[in-house]
Design brief:
Strand content: under 5%
Number of helices: 4
Largest sheet: none
Number of strands: 0
Distance between the termini: 19 Å
Structural class: mainly alpha
Length: about 90
């Protein structure tokens, strides 16, 4: 989720800037796979609920800039948590 393309954009940049029903579904599936499944496998059920709520808030956000900020914050939290777990 942190890799950039030749235009220096994240895949998330494209999903967030082109907010369609399909992209919303794709984002939800991606975040569930990347984040919620990982938290479940670590047995971090309380964190799973907190982060699940963050994902839901992000999906319901209409403002593109705010949605991207929410994604970046969520990603940073997960990266920090991954570092603690490893």
């Amino acid at each position: 989720l942190g890799l950039k393309d030749a235009n220096d954009k994240l895949a998330m940049d494209y999903l967030v800037s082109n907010w369609t029903r399909e992209n919303k579904i794709l984002l939800k599936m991606t975040l569930q796979s990347w984040m919620l499944s990982r938290l479940t496998s670590w047995g971090a059920t309380s964190w799973m609920e907190v982060m699940g709520n963050r994902v839901q808030d992000m999906l319901e956000e209409d403002d593109e800039d705010r949605r991207m900020t929410m994604f970046m914050e969520t990603r940073a939290i997960m990266k920090q948590y991954e570092n603690v777990e490893s």
